Amino acid sequence: ESFIFDIFPLSERMAVLDALREQEFAPVKNAPGSPSDSPDTARSYISKQAQTWVVEAGGKLTGDLESICEISPLTSYGGEGLDGLVKGKDISCPFLL
Fold first, then answer.
1. CB 90 within 8 Å of CB 60
2. Displacement of CA 50 from its chain's centroid (Å)
3. Does the structure show a pLDDT above 80 at 1?
């Protein structure tokens, strides 16, 4: 078994990025139902990120906030451009934008 870290000594140049795990990293290496690094936790991170983007763009979330919510990367890649879709509107969870 090898890890990405194993190549660090072989590289001539390297950079490290610091990011919030919930926003940029959701590994899936454990079985469904596991408390971390599972399909369930990855799905939850993506859903919460979509909800956050809607609220930041001026939308109001209604419905089941624990449900799965998704914003297609064809609609917005990083939360940009959602104002016209959600600003001042009630967005019912679950949603797919």
1. yes
2. 7
3. no
